[in-house]
Amino acid sequence: MSFFGFGQSVEVEILLNDAESRKRAEHKTEDGKKEKYFLFYDGETVSGKVSLSLKNPNKRLEHQGIKIEFIGQIELYYDRGNHHEFVSLVKDLARPGEITQSQAFDFEFTHVEKPYESYTGQNVKLRYFLRATISRRLNDVVKEMDIVVHTLSTYPELNSSIKMEVGIEDCLHIEFEYNKSKYHLKDVIVGKIYFLLVRIKIKHMEIDIIKRETTGTGPNVYHENDTIAKYEIMDGAPVRGESIPIRLFLAGYELTPTMRDINKKFSVRYYLNLVLIDEEERRYFKQQEVVLWRKGDIVRKSMSHQAAIASQRFEGTTSLGEVRTPGPLSDNNSRQ
Amino acid sequence: MSDTAVADTRRLNSKPQDLTDAYGPPSNFLEIDIFNPQTVGVGRARFTTYEVRMRTNLPIFKLKESCVRRRYSDFEWLKNELERDSKIVVPPLPGKALKRQLPFRGDEGIFEESFIEERRQGLEQFINKIAGHPLAQNERCLHMFLQEEAIDRNYVPGKGCALGHRCEAVH
């Protein structure tokens, strides 16, 4: 968000020192548009310069001080007046005086703590931005520049699978399994649904990804559920003993990492919802939380190495219809 | 876990399906037909009954085949019982057609063939929707409606199958 003072005599720009090399990431704005912002991680230094250019070189600009701030704040949409700042750093660039010509002021915020990930949601927004202010008697000149912060994690030590038997007594028993409980944002959910008892007429089955944004505390807790994805995994009526596989690629969906109680203001959690629909449109479902985390980009291995890994996966499988005599597998295995 | 660039997407291991399960009859067979409407009585005391024939292999029903005669008010009774006792959203019945019961109509009113057929279809849809609902299957009134000769309006409402049935259901 940025605005120019109307009819101001000076133009303010915030420029980063590493603007050429720094990556930019897409982030959704409040009105749903996607824009690119400079990407920062926790602990990185934010340095650059504030450049002032006088529109009329002959006119002098009197001011009460020039400063630059680095702010990390949480904004609840139903309480816009109160911004909760969890990071607030300031550097004074100039004492009260006069600007007679266009000039630039260097600044550096060293190893800034950025504990949370940038988030724009239904009822809450967490953002980081630089704000340059030229204080004046009547109205200040302010320029803001948003940045995006990602929080990275590594593979969790403990990542057990989720396996449960659920159902309705004497009507429907299923055992569902998801291979992990914690998935990174480009991961694949691999699972299966095993039917132990089917006494209802099932029409189809789907798996939904639900995002729940919780804002507020105590008696004023507010949940906002959003179905991010609906993915049909079975069409038709299963019988006892059937196993339906699940393979859901997360990279295709707009997901954020799981955020728990950020600054005691909000949470963003994700759930997998397994839904069975019967002939009369009745829905039977089981919701299960999964933890999402962001993996840092790794250096890509060469394509041939990736292809070699991928082909290893399918050793031992054959497509239906082929009759094979047991023997050593040739290189001409058909892929599934 | 190794940090490979390609995710492991192999299927999870699963038990192979027993062929008798795969090719055997499905255990969710439930069919209810409403047919053979008959108007009984004379004059103002006439009413129409429908045959309600049920075939099923669900263990929760005591009889695997049953055939009873029911009239529209019996269906209304069932709807009221379910709305009061069970937590389900009961589907609508076909209309009461009060207008058709007024005198001085040009046609047969509620005994008109086309009306009876319309009503028959509506009742068939209604009972099939209800009987397949796992929560409705718990209600004694449903079992009495489908499988007992006469509806005892002084029955004791409750969960569990029809009286006299040895039920293995655990709640």
Automatic annotation (TrEMBL), chain A:
Coiled-coil intervals, chain numbering: none
A Gene Ontology BP annotation from the UniProt entry: regulation of neurotransmitter receptor localization to postsynaptic specialization membrane
Listed InterPro entries: Arrestin-like_C, Vps26-related
Main location: other
Protein keywords: Protein transport, Transport
Pfam family, one: Vps26
Subcellular location: Early endosome
Keyword Protein transport among UniProt keywords: yes
Region (Disordered): 317-336
Record GO cellular component, one term: postsynaptic early endosome
UniProt KW Transport keyword: yes
Family per record: Belongs to the VPS26 family.
Name listed for the protein in its UniProt record: VPS26 retromer complex component B
Gene: Vps26b
Automatic annotation (TrEMBL), chain B:
Coiled-coil zones: none
Entry superkingdom: Eukaryota
PROSITE patterns (UniProt xref): PX
Xref: SUPFAM superfamilies: PX domain
Chaperone as UniProt keyword: no
One Pfam family here: PX
Region (Disordered): 1-20
Keywords for this protein: Acetylation, Lipid-binding, Phosphoprotein, Protein transport, Transport
GO function term, MF aspect, one: phosphatidylinositol-3-phosphate binding
Transmembrane portions of the chain: none
GO cellular component: early endosome membrane; retromer complex
GO biological process, one term: protein transport
Ranges for domain PX: 28-152
Family: Belongs to the sorting nexin family.
Name listed for the protein in its UniProt record: Sorting nexin-12 isoform X4
